[in-house]
Amino acid sequence: MKYSNVSFIVLFVLISFILAAKTKNADGKRSSVSIEEEEDIAFERQLKNLNKKPIKTIMTKYGDTVDCINIHKQPAFDHPLLKDHKIQMVPSFIQEETTSNNISASSYRVSNIDNGFQNERCPPGTVPIRRTKKQDLANARYLLQKKINPNRTNSYSSSPMNYHFVSVEELSQGKSYHGAAALISTHTLELTYKQFSTAQVWIENGPEEEKNSIQFGWLAYPAIFEDSHSRLMGYWTVDGGKQTGCFNVLCYGFVQVHDQVFLGAVIEQISIYGKLAYNMVARVYRDRTGNWWLMFNVIIGYWPAEIFTHLDNASVVRYGGIAGAEPQTDTPPMGNGYLPQLQDYTKTAFIRKMKYIDDKGQLQNINPDGVQSKHDAKLDCYNILFAGNLGSDWEMSMTYGGPGGMCS
What we know:
This is Neprosin PEP catalytic domain-containing protein. The protein has one domain. The strands form 4 sheets. Strands 3, 7, 12, 14, 15, 16, 18, 19, 21 and 22 form a 10-stranded mixed sheet that branches. The chain has a 7-stranded antiparallel sheet with strand order 11-10-9-8-17-6-20. The radius of gyration is 21 Å and the shape is globular. The chain has 4 helices and 22 strands. The chain has helices at 11-20, 35-50, 134-139, 222-225; strands at 56-59, 65-70, 108-110, 113-114, 126-130, 162-170, 179-185, 196-205, 212-220, 231-237, 246-247, 255-256, 266-267, 277-286, 292-296, 298-303, 316-325, 349-357, 363-365, 371-375, 383-389, 396-401. Helix 1 packs antiparallel against helix 2 (35-50).
């Protein structure tokens, strides 16, 4: 481990402590301040720290409030390990773009990412950061907080949310990964308020109690975004989600450098069942500085090397999706809401050009002979099919998803 017991208490733990604690005054008696009031105080403190004073504020056509923040004063630098961090404006090397914009058939296209600014933009020297609301912090409290453990029947059984996942991973024999890349199909799902669904890639390393993880892709979650649009998602943790890390920029860590595209932005073009299949470029890679750069069609920003304890490289790269809801309720659709098939790719959710990045910074195909598929729900709820190497612009590909329901 780089740092001895390096972790800081982020919002999730703070709130959990407040909910569990018995608030007493100096005389040992019950305080007149309720647990709900204590929780509100914690939220307000976190909101004050996260929502920096903007140079300009933009109301998007999707109803989001986006603040243009001085790039050197963004929330990431409040992380205690980043006080002396010098911002990196571009990666130490730019990867060759090997993922083509179009597949051979004209019915497959690359999705645009829409920040919703219309005719506005952030001033020079600032970056766009979606303003955090109190309900965002409350509803994101358990989002992706628990890591996937494919060796357990229900990898999220200890979580207060009801989760299910499907995934494909290469069972490496001591292989070292320095990133992962894929083209992920984009879809619109009809979700209830407390349901969420993702299409994503995982990069992980470290022992179970100190699991370092970066997860990225798209997410639909009405409880945070107040709509069912698919949006850009990034997540990190250094202890399997127990105390550190968060989704998007709901804590300190991710450094935004792009002046227009930001985490939480809407994926504007989505697939039309049986007619058009849209996909987006998704990639995370470690450059020579040790920072982990995030790309969705364009380079957005990075997670600094300082915040990780076991991510000099990764031992696991995984591709798939997660669907979640409140306990004892139906879990939502995943992918495009249909069970996967390999006959018509305009009628199924897919992840294609599944690659990892080696220690030389080169994109490499995963080994089809070493791939294992995993899922933790009934097959009429969600499934996953690894197609292998389809050649041409598809290369290593998989399909996944399903309608959801009572899936345990």
